Amino acid sequence: MELTELLQIVGEHLDRVGCERFVTGSVASTVFGEPRFTNDIDIVVRMDEQTASEFAKSFSGDEWYVSVEAAVASARARGMFNVIHVSSGLKADIIISRGTEHDEARFARVRRIEMPSGRQEPFASPEDVILKKLEFFREGRSSKHLRDIRSMIAVQGVASLDWQYLEEWAQRLGISAELLHVRGLQ
Fold first, then answer.
1. Per-residue b/e over 145-155, b at no fewer than 16 CB within 10 Å?
2. How many CB atoms neighbour CB 161 within 10 A?
3. In terms of pLDDT, which residue wins out, 45 or 39?
4. Cys-Cys with 124: which of 10, 24, 30, 62 at CB 3.0–4.6 Å?
């Protein structure tokens, strides 16, 4: 199985339970930037406990590992749980939206991207992927986040990004210094 196949399958299951979502993280930065290896998909969802249970139960058989208990607990705590394709080891991290103001802004800016199968999947905007990568960089100082951001800026083009949105949210999220650092890398 390839990552795009996993995204399609998980997306179809989320559609069946009526779950609003968007892809973010490394898969999104690859779509908006340059490819890099990753074995998981980060999907932010709006999901209550009942929907989490229904979604987790929709994966059956030895091919999948999804804990119904973990899904329900994650929905309750607004945390995260996994959908794992056992034979490939690929996984989807299902991240329950905390309903923050920034989460709401990210949902409002979703972009539908056509996948190789022809299916359209919702993705976070490049600006929102950059902001999240900056938050992760601030927390862990991992240079992979900076590489992803530089790649996205190079591929998307500086002029095509909404720098006003980036600066406003960077200030609100406390990552203005990190955004300035990234702008200085160009």
1. bbbbbebbbee
2. 17
3. 45
4. 24
Residue 157 in 3-state DSSP? coil
Decide: 124 and 22 in contact? Cβ < 8 Å: yes
- Could you read off the pLDDT of 122-179 as tens digits, one per residue? 999 999 999 999 998 888 767 778 888 888 888 888 888 999 999 999 999 999 988 9
Q: Residue written as tokens 């996948």?
A: 115
d(CA 99, CA 78): 9
Q: Where are the domains of the chain?
A: 3-123, 126-184
Does the reported pTM lie above 0.85? yes
Over the stretch 70-91, which tens digit does the pLDDT of each residue have? 999 999 999 999 999 999 999 9
Residues 6+ away with beta carbon under 8 Å from 125: 106, 109, 110, 111, 162
Q: How far is CA 174 from the centre of its chain?
A: 20
Q: Quick one: fold of 3-123? A: Beta Polymerase; domain 2 (3.30.460)
